[in-house]
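lol ok so funny story. i was supposed to be doing the assay writeup but got distracted and ended up predicting the structure for this chain instead. priorities right. anyway since i did it might as well share w the group, maybe its usefull for someone
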Amino acid sequence: MPVQRTTFARPLVAVAMVALSSLYALAQQPPTRVRGTIESVDGDLLAVKSRSGENVKLHVTPDIRVAGVTRIALADIKVGSFIGTTTVPGPDGGQNAVEVHVFPETMRGTGEGSRPYDLRPNSSMTNATVAESVVGNDGHTLLVKYKDGEKKVFVSADTPVVTYVPGEKSDLKAGAKIIAFIKALPDGSFETSRVSVGRDGLTPPM
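and the output, tada:
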């Protein structure tokens, strides 16, 4: 009997080891974005306190692109708008929007499609065109279509809705709430060439 238990346990141990190895590998992957607040600026070096409480030093590249993020109304989402939305599964099997950002026409087609996202557990990011919008008492239900499919998304009246506006490097100052898209440098530090910064104290919700 002991031999049988040991034999049965071996596959379970192997599965556990593979799972732990996978989690370790995921943990070792460098981050691709930092969300947080700029604490200080020293030339081209930003000191950022991330939303998770970590202190991050970001080197700003000479060709830095800065976009402002500003709040708009839910009613500003129109049929034909090209949007990005972070969603999580709803209790009814649909998708509930955590946030929606409406792209300006110059950014139409940016990242079109749907993919896993890191804002919340089980969240996904979908960049697509609004094909239908049904207005209800508590929000909008959007049918969004992208090149590989479509998705129904419920946007409640409380869901943050924002859009992008032109930004400047001077917007990167202490107190600004940002999302910085980063890459790791050989020395272990990080650099950024693209930053979204909230206007008027707004925390970019995406």
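The first helix runs from residue 2 to 28. The chain has a mean pLDDT of 87.
back to the writeup now i swear
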